[in-house]
Structure formats: structure tokens, C-alpha cells
């Protein structure tokens, strides 16, 4: 199953791209996807505890089960205003 | 409750926003807040701040915040403009207006929206040093 992952703010700089497509097994959770991302983009590892994850336009936790067609976004704490 | 969100690269036009204010007869309090880019960040002078936004999610999160406001306070209206892209020092990046029957609700709701925005709305900033 292919999942598109978008990066925002300094996650874009740490990964060198605005988005990637990751292959995950059906039934995978966000935590599984993150582990793959941390292998492919080790610069994310030092900031992993502060990262926020959304699926579509809603925040989701590490135990969210990914569905075909989900678009995941990964970003640091927000700073509006 | 009237609700409006505008996430824009355009300058915030306060005059136009004030002209579009709708004040029903039972509403006795209007609070508006203007957030302005300071000329320094962490003690260092800056020229501007670059704001990045995940726009679709930002609109969704503002909607969720406004849902909470609607449950907690009897507001007639909430309007919010957040500027994104480059905002030079001295210019506003945020405008929020709340209209309620009494000042307590208007102030509380305005404060709440800004605090929640800083917690959940996907907007990020990067200072541009002088």
C-alpha cells in the first residue's frame, strides 16, 4: 500500500523534499510509517518526539491504522500568530 | 454565529474589515486583536517573518476552534485573518474580532481563539534576520 507523506516547515529541510511516497503493509499504523521514514530520513530522528502527524486535515495518533489513499502530513509544533 | 476565516498573502486591510462589521442590537461588546510582527526575535533584529501554512488543515482547525467557542460563549460573530508569506516588521500578521453581548465573553473568546490557534493550527514562522 502506498502512502503519500507531506513535510512542512523544517521537516521539509531535514528530508530535502516536500513530499514522498512510502510503501507500507496493509494494516500498518502511523507508528510503522514513522519508523520507515526515520530509516529513510535519519535527520528526523532527533526531532521525532516533537513531531505532529495529520491524516488529511485532522491530527492522528501513532496508533491510527492507515488506509489506502490516506495523505499523511508530518510537521513540527505550530507557531501561528 | 457568524464565522469567517481568511488566510491570505495580502496585507490585512483593517479599514475594510471594520466596514464589514455587523453589529446586532443585543451585542454590547466588540473586541479585536491585532498581532504585529516585531522588529526582533530572540533578541536579534529581524526584517520580516516568513509564514508557512498547510491551508486546508488550518481552515479545518479554525473551524474546530470556532465550534468550541460557539459551545462556550454566546458570540454573535467571530472573524479572523491570518497573513502568510513574508510579513515585514511593523505589519500585522493576525487580526481577530469577537462580538458578544458582554465584554467578558468577547475578551475570553478572543483570547481562547488565539491560544488554541497557537496550539493546533498548522502555521509556522521563520524569522528573516536583518
Walk me through the structure.
The complex is a heterodimer of chains A (81) and B (130). With 81 residues, chain A is of the alpha+beta class. Chain A has a single domain, classed as Ubiquitin-like (UB roll) (Roll). Chain A contains two helices and five strands. Chain A has helices at residues 10-15, 30-40; strands spanning 2-7, 19-23, 52-55, 58-59, 71-75. The longest helix of chain B has 18 residues, at 55-72. The model of chain B has no long low-confidence stretch (mean pLDDT 97). In chain B, strands 1-5-7-2 form a four-stranded mixed beta sheet, covered by helices on one side. In chain B, strand 3 (40-41) and strand 4 (44-53) form a beta hairpin. Chain B has a single domain (2-11, 26-129), classed as Molybdopterin biosynthesis MoaE subunit (Aldehyde Oxidoreductase, domain 3, Alpha-Beta Complex). Classes of the chains: A alpha+beta (81), B alpha+beta (130). At the A-B interface, strand 4 of A face helix 2, helix 3 and strand 8 of B.
Brief digest:
The complex is a heterodimer of chains A (81) and B (130). Helix content of chain A is 21%, strand content 27%. Chain A contains two helices and five strands, in the order βαβαβββ.
Amino acid at each position: 500500500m502506498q502512502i503519500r507523506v507531506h513535510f512542512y516547515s523544517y521537516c521539509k529541510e531535514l528530508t530535502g523534499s516536500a513530499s514522498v511516497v512510502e510503501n507500507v503493509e496493509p494494516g500498518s499504523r502511523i507508528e510503522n510509517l514513522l519508523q520507515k521514514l526515520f530509516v529513510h530520513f535519519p535527520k528526523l530522528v532527533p526531532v521525532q518526539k516533537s513531531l505532529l502527524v495529520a491524516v488529511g486535515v485532522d491530527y492522528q495518533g501513532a496508533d491510527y491504522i492507515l488506509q489506502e489513499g490516506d495523505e499523511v502530513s508530518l510537521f513540527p509544533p505550530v507557531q501561528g500568530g | 454565529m457568524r464565522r469567517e476565516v481568511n488566510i491570505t498573502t495580502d496585507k490585512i486591510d483593517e479599514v475594510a474589515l471594520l466596514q464589514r462589521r455587523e453589529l446586532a442590537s443585543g451585542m454590547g461588546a466588540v473586541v479585536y486583536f491585532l498581532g504585529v510582527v516585531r522588529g526582533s526575535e530572540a533578541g536579534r533584529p529581524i526584517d520580516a517573518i516568513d509564514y508557512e501554512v498547510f491551508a486546508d488543515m488550518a481552515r479545518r482547525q479554525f473551524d474546530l476552534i470556532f465550534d468550541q467557542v460557539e459551545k462556550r460563549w454566546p458570540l454573535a460573530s467571530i472573524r479572523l485573518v491570518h497573513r502568510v508569506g513574508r510579513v515585514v516588521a511593523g505589519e500585522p500578521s493576525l487580526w481577530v474580532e469577537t462580538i458578544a453581548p458582554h465584554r467578558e465573553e468577547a475578551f475570553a473568546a478572543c483570547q481562547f481563539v488565539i491560544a488554541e490557534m497557537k496550539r493546533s493550527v498548522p502555521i509556522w514562522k521563520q524569522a528573516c534576520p536583518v
